[in-house]
Amino acid sequence: APLEDKSVSSSTKVSVRRTLYDPTLPETKGFKPENEHLEASTLEYDWCSKFLGCLVKDLVVTTTFVPNTRRGSWFSGANYVTKDWHRTDLRNLGSSRDRPSESPPRHEDIQLNSKFRGTFLTDGLEFWECDDGKKLCVKRNQTWRGNYVTCYAVGEEGDEYVAKCWAWAIENNFLKGECFDLDGNFMDVTDETVDDVILENKHKKQLQGWIKLVNTKGESMPNRGVAMLGPPGTGKTLSARILRNETPKATFIWVNAKHCSHWGLADAFCSGMQMAKELAPAVLCIEDVDSYLQSRTVDVIKSEMDGIGRSTGVMTIMTTNHPEAWPAALVDRPGRFHDVEEFNLPTEAARTLMVEKFAGKMMVGPEGEKQVSLNDAKQVAKLTDGYSGAHMYELVYFASLIMDEDQCTPMKAFGKAIDKIAKQQELLGEGQMASVMYRKTVVPPSMKEASEGVWEELDEKAGSELTKREVGMIKQTADDIGMALDEEKIGSKNRTRLKRCG
């Protein structure tokens, strides 16, 4: 733009605008951008524009993302769409325009479902001549979450190609009735049934009710939300597995913390819910993702589970070890979680049944006879108060190994196994209460007398207001403060602050 010189005449005091010539500015008179031509920024743009017979600026680019779970169906749909087309060439070009390079196109063996597999192009640029004489370039680029597919065309051929591939993939989805996780890994159906799980009667009846609902209602089942609460190892995941095993016609989609770290819970939930709606009847199981429940994520879950666009045929299960971490907006709303089940630690009677059941499979004599009597199982149950179902399984497993190695009786083996587990828990507890350096804490003499009464009071409260672990952490902090006060180098201000903390 020309420079302007603003000055004021001393006689007239009137502003004068003067244009000055700047020799550094380019000549712009008669410039028309449509007459300017530049080199393509990438080799891919250059080749696609030449193949399609147009300028780079006239390329119409259409991009879509195909996640790992959908690649088998989507690529099969792409093969169907192009079955009458002619592929003139297939290349895998580098991205640099200044240093052209090329790599071999990559193909991958992809599992379509639990029974069938197929080999598809995952990295490469295809040059197609369509059945109507038009041309299309299709680039596939693989990432760890799936494939980006980019189409280059002159008109709407790219949009039509992507729409047809998605329509075919959704209508002919190979995942219907399958069990898989969000990364596209298929899971085997086990032989566990409702009879194999040891739960309280109310939980067992509820599990049977869910199975009946999915099997009888199918796609017409009203969407249902289920929340399973309770400590680890109490049967939440096992119940979900049995629900998977006992609903053979339903699709089962598994989402856990690993998928959330890759996708983010909001995207993982949306992707899982979208597939569940397409593949209904379906069970979408979200396992132990409490740490990912943030404000935006909660809003997404609320809208997906109870939004304007209502759907049917989906049962959503969410398990948690920390129900207090769930926001009220998620749980305190009718229509989201219809069933809330709390799985508590097993009672003595339940532990007796667990010992009998697990020992019947692992502690068997040479002629197939059971080596653990009902009386033995009752004695073991009395010694294992506070054990979860997972603990009971590990206990029987340890005892079976000890009995084989030491050639001892079942009860002696159980005694050694209980001691082993108790020692492990004691070591873990000490490690949690100790400092990072695992140093032995010594309370300074000056602190001992003043702290004895405090420790007694805290010990009395342990198990009610405070847990033993919290008491240990408080003791550790006090010990650290006491040792810091004994240091001669500490300043007066810091000494005063530490005394307040003490």
Structure, described:
The structure is a single chain. The protein has 502 residues and is an alpha/beta fold. Helices cover 42% and strands 18% of the residues. The chain contains 16 helices and 14 strands. It has helices spanning 43-52, 71-81, 157-171, 201-217, 236-245, 257-263, 265-278, 295-306, 328-331, 348-362, 374-382, 389-406, 410-433, 445-461, 468-486, 492-501, and strands at residues 3-8, 15-20, 60-67, 86-91, 106-111, 117-129, 135-142, 146-153, 179-181, 224-229, 251-255, 282-287, 314-320, 339-342. Strands 3, 4, 5, 6, 7 and 8 form a six-stranded antiparallel sheet that branches. A hairpin with a 3-residue loop joins strand 7 and strand 8 (146-153). The longest helix is centred in the C-terminal third of the chain and has 24 residues, at 410-433. The chain starts with a strand and ends with a helix. 27% of the residues are buried.
Task: Give the gist of this structure.
The protein is built from 16 helices and 14 strands. It is of the alpha/beta class and 502 residues long.
